[in-house]
Amino acid sequence: MSLLAQLDPLKAEALAAxxxxxDLPALEQTKGAFLGGDGKFTALMKQLGxxxxxxxxxxxxxxxxxxxxxxxxxxxxxxxxELTAAPRNPPTGRSPVAASPWAACTRSRxxxxxxxxxxxxxxxxxxxxxxxxxxxTASMP
Length: 141
What we know:
Elements: H1 3-20, H2 24-35, H3 40-46, H4 56-85, H5 96-99, H6 103-107, H7 122-132
């Protein structure tokens, strides 16, 4: 069977295998079987050297065209599978930062436990203690 005669059945087989992949690991395995280093299309490219000099350019173009078509089909199938594999979180209508109970702590200098108590850092306590040298008092920011 000639090289170009093998191309169409191999293309149909590859497209069917891509569509039959049910998850991303199976899709990657299919990609390797056809387009990988030991894949069937790579084997066809290696056989180009055995063709007569006049037939090589046409055969190479035909193989590359089929490979490009398979790459496009592979990318489309990958995006389909990624969409189905993506986690589905129900929309809450709020941003994740606003939904966090600690969100107020990042926007103000309030204590994380009580929203009305002022936040006093240890640095301000030690500074006050060094200034007065008698007692530790917290300064309000």
